[in-house]
Design goal:
Layout (H helix, E strand, L loop, with lengths): L10 H12 L7 H6 L24 E7 L14 E2 L4 E2 L5 E5 L2 H10 L2 H7 L3 E6 L11 E5 L2 E5 L3 H11 L3 H18 E11 L4 H12 L4 E8 L17 E8 L10 E2 L12 E2 L5 E7 L5 H9 L3 E3 L5 E6 L6 E2 L3 E2 L21 H11 L5 E4 L6 H8 L3 E6 L2 H20 L7 E6 L4 H5 L5 H25 L2 E2 L8 E3 L2 E5 L8 H13 L4 E6 L9 H8 L3 E6 L7 H6 L5 E2 L2 E9 L2 E10 L9 H4 L5 E6 L2 E7 L5 E5 L8 E7 L6 E7 L5 E9 L1 E3 L1 E4 L15 E2 L4 E10 L4 E9 L1
Parallel strand pairs: 1-35, 4-19, 4-20, 5-8, 5-18, 9-17, 18-19, 23-24, 24-25
Antiparallel strand pairs: 1-20, 2-3, 6-7, 8-10, 9-10, 11-16, 12-13, 13-15, 14-15, 21-22, 22-23, 25-26, 27-28, 28-37, 29-30, 30-31, 32-36, 32-38, 33-34, 38-39
Helix pairs in contact: 3-6, 6-7, 9-10, 10-11
């Protein structure tokens, strides 16, 4: 607590302070400086600002390891690779983490992975491009044949958006403030952070970064010219917005930086390299000799490197091929934004070009440095980091983002393989054990307890809402069971977190204890890799376990009252093993989904002469209403595999146990087998950005050892939802 200044207030000021405190009102800002020591630096204040930090440590669960098999020309250390399979077995593995970056940052800071980070020299660069675009980051354009469907944010993304922008700038600043403090802690002493923003929050972000990192650690503000004024922007009543800002700060004065150069613009009117010698070498004569010694000038004359003008002025002849180029300044006008036809484009509305990240990474890091992006989006940062031989950690809240990055990085691995270059394996991780207490209450003050009460009341209302929509009746007397529908009991997952293995295991335990044989579990989202393995586990114990996905429409009171809400089942997968001696391949034979989206009251809400693409009972349909009000339908998902965006095979699923690391209360790092296995991606096929890149439905062959083995097949649909099926085969 700051010390009270030895300063006398006037009688009126004293009465004012007492009156305001008695009435429970906030003191005017002036008393901050009258009562307390003046701050040495300017601070930004907003409603809800708090210096309390999330301090939890959740274990990271490895869901999948991806490593394109290499050829025999592996140039890395022999102990790091299995030369028979061409796969990485040791050394740093890149991390792609799905979850809320607040809890990810806190767990990186406080958990066992911190030791791994420090062994790599710490995090040398953090780049973030937070969602300044008012929620646009959560929408995606999904290609369906020759059509495009806008994937809306899911419920968890809506909640994240509400928490970020619900109170406008106040809630956004609270969100980013805590995360920046955690990032500073993780950043190496010689590291730097780049914060990408635009006109919406640029001025406020500058003050926040000054407060957290110190004004003395401000390095640059980059102005990126990302376009030209045209269209509606050219005719508006203000200057067109064509600039982004990138704020750069360091943790100390010892940060790494390497100057980058861009080529001379030989077509420019200001170009100085306008001359050619007899050999065709291009040179300039604009460099004065004032900075050179007489001895050096004499050397230049002997070399024929001095130009003498008509008036006798001498300048240095400087050849173009001897220059590095033009030093890059803080105005970046030589990197174009992505156009609609760019091969880099993934559908993200705020996607940045790879050249932008190339410059940032090259200027502020060296090869093998560890670098991070905690708002990963489409994965531009990870892609560039891998190509430039940097180690990386990336995270995102959106499951579709994780899926997009996975595809992108597999493509990067394939390209590097073609070029006979090296790459690192990467892991896909969940932020594991979503324990309810971490999200319900982790404070101690009276104010925090009030917040807890509010959250619990919201939770009660939420459960009632879901049960009504599911047409189930509420029941009491259970910890994890909340309702009943026909002969099945109903459990509802967390409000604002994915349905976790931890929650499902608690449900199973309570059901077995009470001799319950059938239960439906309802959730907005679920941990990757959770189903169907846990269903098989429950089945072996005599419990039928069904997962139902809660649709967004539960918040539509009109739809609930009409009984129009459909809870989706987990997708259905069928595949068959094909044997050729000891070799095994997998053929995908069927896939079905059961989604509904944007289809409520569509016929009456669709304007005349307009069309809309919706999802209805597992089909993507384009609905058109003509001028006479007649509705025509065009089914876009004509075949079952139209729904599939990606699928992969692990030919020996139970070969790699999932081991989590955690810290004990005494501070020891211990390991524990979760009882699950890591899905090792041994073969995959996915739709590319180009229509020519088709999905393969049959895998390549793999030699299998004699006996029994479990094959796992993972399918990700075009909305980014993953489903897995496991089959035991015998040779």
């Amino acid at each position: 607590m700051k010390k009270i200044k030895k300063m006398k207030l006037t009688d009126n000021e004293k009465r004012d302070v007492v009156k305001l405190i008695t009435e429970g009102k906030n003191l005017p800002e002036k008393y901050r400086f009258l009562l307390f020591e003046q701050s040495k630096q300017i601070e930004l204040s907003w409603n809800g600002k708090s210096h309390d930090l999330t301090n939890i440590d959740l274990p990271f669960q490895i869901i999948e390891q991806v490593d394109e098999p290499r050829t025999e020309k592996v140039k890395r250390a022999q102990g790091s690779f299995d030369f028979n399979l061409g796969r990485q077995t040791a050394g740093w593995t890149n991390k792609l983490i799905w979850g809320d970056n607040k809890y990810i940052l806190s767990s990186l800071k406080n958990g066992p992975m911190r030791d791994e980070i420090e062994k790599e020299g710490g995090i040398k660069l953090i780049y973030i491009d937070p969602p300044f675009d008012v929620g646009a980051d959560f929408s995606m354009n999904v290609e369906v044949g020759d059509n495009s469907y806008e994937k809306k944010p899911n419920v968890l993304e809506h909640i994240a958006y509400r928490d970020t922008w619900g109170l406008g700038e106040d809630s956004f600043l609270s969100m980013i403030y805590e995360r920046l403090i955690l990032m500073k802690d993780l950043l190496a002493e010689d590291g730097s952070i780049y914060v990408h923003c635009d006109w919406r929050m640029n001025s406020l972000m500058r003050v926040i970064l000054d407060e957290i990192f110190g004004r003395e650690n401000y390095i640059n503000e980059i102005i990126w010219k990302k376009g030209v004024v045209k269209g509606a922007r050219a005719n508006s009543k203000k200057f067109g917005k064509i600039l982004d800002n990138i704020l750069i700060y360091s943790k100390s004065n010892n940060y790494y930086f390497k100057t980058e150069y861009k080529p001379h613009d030989l077509d420019s009117k200001n170009n100085k390299f306008k001359h050619k010698d007899k050999d065709g070498r291009i040179y300039s004569i604009d460099t004065p000799l004032g900075d050179y010694s007489e001895k050096k000038i004499t050397e230049f004359e002997k070399q024929g490197r001095i130009h003498t003008s008509k008036n006798g002025k001498k300048t240095l002849i400087r050849y173009l091929d001897e220059t590095k180029g033009i030093s890059v300044g803080d105005l970046w006008d030589d990197i174009s934004p992505l156009n609609q036809n760019s091969s880099e484009r993934t559908g993200y509305p705020t996607q940045k070009p790879e050249k932008l990240l190339e410059r940032i990474i090259n200027c502020s890091t060296k090869q093998d440095d560890l670098i991070c992006d905690f708002f990963a989006g489409s994965g531009v940062f990870a892609s560039v980091a891998e190509k430039l031989n940097r180690k990386w950690i990336c995270s995102d809240l959106g499951k579709f983002s994780i899926h997009t990055i996975r595809k992108r990085m597999i493509d990067v691995q394939r390209k590097l393989k073609k070029e006979e270059k090296n790459w690192r394996a990467f892991e896909i991780l969940n932020l594991g054990k979503y324990q309810r207490q971490h999200y319900i209450y982790d404070g101690k003050s009276e104010r925090d307890e009030i917040k807890v009460t509010i959250k619990k009341n919201k939770e009660i209302q939420f459960k009632k809402l879901i049960l009504d929509a599911y047409k189930a009746t509420e029941i009491d007397g259970f910890k994890t069971i909340h309702g009943k529908k026909s002969d099945n009991l109903v459990s509802i997952g967390p409000i604002n977190q994915p349905l976790s293995r931890n929650h499902v295991e608690e449900v199973i335990e309570e059901c077995l204890r009470n001799k319950i044989t059938s239960v439906d579990i309802l959730g907005f989202e679920y941990e990757m890799g959770l189903f169907p393995s846990i269903q098989e586990e429950a089945k072996s114990k005599g419990l039928r376990l069904a997962y139902k996905q809660i649709p967004m429409e539960v918040f539509d009171k009109r739809a609930v009252s009409k009984g129009e809400i459909i809870f989706h089942d987990v997708a259905y997968i069928e595949f068959k093993p094909i044997f050729k001696g000891k070799k095994l391949s997998i053929e995908l034979t069927d896939f079905a989904v059961f989604y509904n989206e944007d289809n409520l009251n569509i016929d009456e809400n669709l304007a005349f002469g307009k069309s809309k693409i919706i999802v209805e009972n597992g089909q993507i349909i384009e609905k058109q209403k003509d001028k006479n009000g007649i509705i025509k339908e065009n089914i876009l998902t004509k075949k079952w595999y139209d729904w599939i965006d990606y699928w992969s095979v692990d030919f020996n699923y139970e070969s790699k146990p999932e081991i989590i690391k955690f810290k004990t209360k005494e501070g020891r790092i211990e390991e524990e087998w979760t009882g699950n296995y890591v899905f090792e991606n041994e073969w995959q096929s996915f739709k590319g950005n180009k229509s020519s890149e088709k999905l393969e439905l049959k895998s390549s062959e793999r030699e299998i050892l004699s006996g029994k083995t479990k094959v796992a097949v993972k399918v990700v649909d075009i909305f980014g939802n993953d489903t897995m099926k496991i089959l035991q085969v015998k040779i």
